[in-house]
Amino acid sequence: MRKQLYFWAALLWAGTIAFFCLVQLNNVPMGTVSNLDKLVHAFFHFVLTFFCFLFLKSRANNPNSFLPLIASFLFSVFFGIGIEIAQELFTKTRHAEVFDVLANLSGATLTVVMVLLFGLNTKLR
């Protein structure tokens, strides 16, 4: 049951990221925080990496394996790069930005740091 929950959470979150990154959001007030969109990108990929990690960890045969963490990190980073490419190729109002990719990378990296710091790689099963 947990495996399915983690899978659907990761899939739904990836869909949410794709939706918000590919639709026109010109009329949405962003407030006064500079680079708020970069914080949003980092948050999106922090959560995506964590959900993917939970799913892959629940399926791992070896509870001490780092493969679920590495695979989750790589998936999140390449998914973010793919979204940036899609923005450039398929939308007229959105454009690919290197700083968005760096924000995505930051969010994914924060998940890896959190998992390692709190020992979640070995505690979760």
From TrEMBL:
Membrane-spanning ranges: 5-27, 39-56, 65-86, 98-120
Keywords, sorted A to Z: Membrane, Transmembrane, Transmembrane helix
NCBIfam families per UniProt: vanZ_1
PANTHER family from the UniProt entry: DOMAIN PROTEIN, PUTATIVE (AFU_ORTHOLOGUE AFUA_3G10980)-RELATED (PTHR28008:SF1)
Identification of the protein by name: Uncharacterized protein
Species this chain originates from: Flavobacterium psychrolimnae
Lineage: Bacteria, Pseudomonadati, Bacteroidota, Flavobacteriia, Flavobacteriales
